[in-house]
Structures are given as C-alpha cells and as structure tokens.
Amino acid sequence: ALRDLWVGHVFWVRNVVVETFAGNKQAAAAAETAVVANARQLAGAIEPYYGKAASEKLFGLLAGHYGAVKQYLEATAAGSKARQDAAVKNLTGNATEIAQFLSGANPHLPFDTLNGLLLAHGGHHIQEIQQIKGKQYAEEAQTWEAMKQHMYVIADALAGAIAKQFPAKFS
Which of 34, 55, 82, 167 could share a disulfide with 12, CB 3.0–4.6 Å? Predict the structure, then answer.
C-alpha cells in the first residue's frame, strides 16, 4: 500500500509539471488537488501507529515538500535562477525536517539514510522539471523510471521500519 501511495506522489507531481509547461491550467489544478489528496493519504498511513498528531505533522511536512517542488517549477518556468536556488534550499531543508521527524518516531529509520533517500528524491523532482522544460522526453522517461524505483525503496524502508517497531501488529 505504501508503494502505491509513494508512486502516486511522483505520478501526480509529474502531471502538475507536464500540464504547467503545456499551459493547461485546468489539468494542472486537477493534478495539484490529487497531490494534496495523496499527501493526506500518505500521512494517514502512519496514523494507526503514531497517532493523529503525527499524521498531521507529516501532512504539514509533505505539504512543505510539494510547496518547494512547486516553487522550483514556477521559478524554472519563469527562468529565475535566484528563485530556483531558493526553492532548492527549501526542498533540501524540508527533506531534512521529514527525515528528522520520521527517524525520531522510529529507531529503525536512521536519520542519515532517510535524509539521503529524501534528498535524492528531491533531486529527481528537479531533474524531471528541467528535462520536461527542455523537451528531453527520452531522458525524462529514464528519470521517471528511476523515480518510481526510488519510491519503492522509500516505501519499503518505511514499511519495514514500522513492522520492526510494531511487530505485534504484523504477526
């Protein structure tokens, strides 16, 4: 289930990017609504283990993640290097916040490992945005495949850590 949710995240964000560069505001807005719904589902997936407050905290952090990706997308569309740099700073800072939160909740999620996974994930978003803007479709197809595989790694790490922390719920 976590794999589907995390792949859903990159799927819907990709749709926002594609439709933004295509100038299709209605489709981009619909995809953005799906991004938010997906973030709510991702946050909800931890609620049975960590409670409502943790779920809400994760939702806020995921909203910050998407906000930084959107900031980078808008800066790229506008051709503003300074705004892109600010967005990257926000994206990397948010990755660290998510890693701190999740590793603090679960001793089976080492901060350094999780932070590295999340920083690489942000890098995929940046690469994909650049490739779609540059009409590098074959390269973006490879990035898309790498993004999906990377989401499996993140989802499996989270699921495995939750199962280790709460073995009675998985026996």
Answer: 34
Supply the DSSP string of 48-104, one letter for each residue: HHH-HHHHHHHHHHHHHHHHHHHHHHHHHHHT-HHHHHHHHHHHHHHHHHHHHHHHH
The string of pLDDT tens digits covering residues 117-129 is 999 999 999 999 9
Whole-number Å distance between alpha carbons of 116 and 38: 22
For residue 129, give the amino acid letter.
I
d(CA 93, CA 72): 14
DSSP H helix total and E strand total for the chain = 7, 0
CA dihedral 131, 156, 31, 38 (to 10 degrees): -150
Give the pair of three-digit tokens for residue 169: 């719920």
pLDDT tens per residue, range 46-57: 999 999 999 999
The tokens describing 95, both together, are 């990755």
Side chain identity at residue 48, one-letter code: P
pTM to 2 decimals?
0.96
How many Å apart are CA 161 and CA 105, to the nearest integer? 10
Locus of tokens 């594609």: 18
